[in-house]
């Protein structure tokens, strides 16, 4: 799908003029869609073949397929509903509840044991192939890296000890620290406040890098942050094509750069450095 670049929230300038990159983690640095969709297959497999839902979620393991996009969208909608309803609930508990809710909506059985396993699975989600190298190159280029993540501290600590153990983060801000989930503006206001408090970084020196249009780029524009869209191919949780198009047509986002991977962002930073921008 071809989307026009939106008018940037703030005037574009060289990437090297920013000092801090705030990241969405799950979906941008870490592949959470694949393991989540995989974990939900046990529920999908219980749907009777005669049900219309069986057709809707058919072939849901194949990246980019209508079934996978539908299943990822189903999870995304329920996750957002629960986050809005229970903004202080720990993310592992929210995942537990989301699993049981999806089972109920699909008309199948979801056990407490499976729901608990689903809730505790965050730390096992793998990074995208380009993530660690790109982060290391961005640190080398002088950026402070700060996660702004919709998870609890314990879940993120497992990711830090495992998939992202070789990434040097300056600070970590989670939904549990803040008491709300993105897209709440509180999370971005917390980022702006603490970037200044913890690192002496002003708002106009923050570059927010994320895959999710809904969770990250819409609120980033509202608070006036420069941002980069990592538009990973086949990511169903980022929003369906028609939704993305409407958001762009209404100019609800204002990211200044768009890349297919985090590695492409690191490449652009290095290109600017070579050319003296």
What's the arrangement of secondary structure elements?
Blueprint: E1 20-23, H1 33-39, H2 41-44, H3 52-56, H4 66-85, H5 91-106, H6 112-119, H7 131-140, E2 144-149, H8 153-161, E3 173-174, H9 175-178, H10 185-199, E4 206-210, H11 213-223, E5 226-230, H12 241-249, E6 257-259, H13 262-275
Parallel strand pairs: 1-2, 1-4, 2-3, 4-5, 5-6
Helix pairs in contact: 4-5, 5-6, 7-13
Describe, in plain words, how this protein is organized in 3D.
By secondary structure, the chain is of the alpha/beta class. The chain has two domains: 167 residues, Rossmann fold, CATH 3.40.50.1000; 92 residues, DNA polymerase, domain 1 (Orthogonal Bundle). It contains 13 helices and six strands. It has a six-stranded parallel beta sheet with strand order 3-2-1-4-5-6, with helices on both faces. Helix 4 packs across helix 5. The protein starts with 19 loop residues before the first strand and ends with a helix. 41% of the residues are buried.
């Amino acid at each position: 799908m071809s989307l026009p670049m939106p008018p940037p929230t703030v005037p574009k300038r060289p990437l090297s003029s920013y000092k801090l990159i705030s990241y969405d983690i799950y979906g941008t640095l870490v592949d959470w869609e694949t393991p989540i969709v995989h974990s939900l297959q046990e529920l999908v497999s219980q749907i009777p073949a005669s049900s219309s839902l069986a057709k809707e979620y058919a072939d849901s393991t194949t990246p980019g397929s209508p079934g996978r996009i539908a299943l990822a969208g189903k999870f995304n909608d329920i996750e957002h509903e629960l986050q809005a309803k229970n903004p202080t609930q720990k993310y592992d508990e929210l995942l537990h509840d989301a699993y049981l809710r999806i089972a109920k909506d699909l008309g199948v059985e979801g056990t407490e044991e499976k729901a608990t396993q689903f809730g505790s699975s965050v730390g096992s989600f793998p990074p995208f192939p380009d993530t660690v190298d790109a982060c290391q190159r961005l640190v080398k280029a002088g950026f402070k890296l700060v996660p702004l993540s919709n998870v609890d501290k314990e879940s993120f600590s497992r990711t830090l000890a495992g998939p992202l153990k070789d990434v040097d983060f300056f600070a970590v801000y989670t939904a549990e620290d803040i008491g709300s989930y993105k897209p709440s503006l509180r999370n971005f206001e917390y980022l702006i406040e603490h970037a200044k408090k913890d690192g002496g970084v002003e708002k106009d020196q923050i570059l927010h890098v994320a895959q999710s249009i809904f969770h990250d780029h819409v609120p980033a524009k509202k608070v006036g942050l420069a941002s980069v869209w990592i538009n990973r191919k086949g990511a169903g949780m980022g929003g369906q094509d028609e939704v993305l198009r409407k958001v762009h047509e209404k100019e609800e986002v204002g990211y200044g750069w768009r890349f297919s991977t985090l590695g492409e962002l690191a490449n652009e930073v290095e290109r600017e450095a070579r050319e003296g921008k």
